[in-house]
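ok so i was messing around last nite and threw this chain in just to see what happens. nothing serious, just curious
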Amino acid sequence: MIRVHVFVEGQTEETFVRDVLAEELQNAEIYLNPIVIKTSRTGKGGVVSYEVIKKQIQRKCKEDRSAFVTTMFDFYRLPKTFPGISSIPEGGDPYQKSEYLEQALEQDIDQTNFLAYLMMYEFEGLLYSWPEAFHDWFGESVVEQLKRDRDHL
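result:
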């Protein structure tokens, strides 16, 4: 059995990890625990301050060393203090930039059970780009609702 704590930006990503990814990975005995990053005492969601999320990630890595810890953050709009952001190579492939920042994040967190992951595209944008992909998990009514929402954006 493998356990993975996944730090996510908001409730949409939390639901996706819990209801879609976790369900699929259970068959392989991989258990996911989504954690919405806490931005203040009362607020949750969004990568607004690297210093705040760094503490949360390191704390989880240390308190549960037998599990992996990862992130599911959007590549774009990361805080200016995010590791590697000030030295990211100009131009070039966006996936190489993402990998560069993932490596910088892993080095800064400095925990052996931490594996960084940055999503190249806004997660919510992916939902609306191909609503039919969700049919098997959520049914026709959800697909139709996503299409209606997209058409009204």
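not much to say yet. The CA atoms of residues 76 and 120 lie 7 Å apart.
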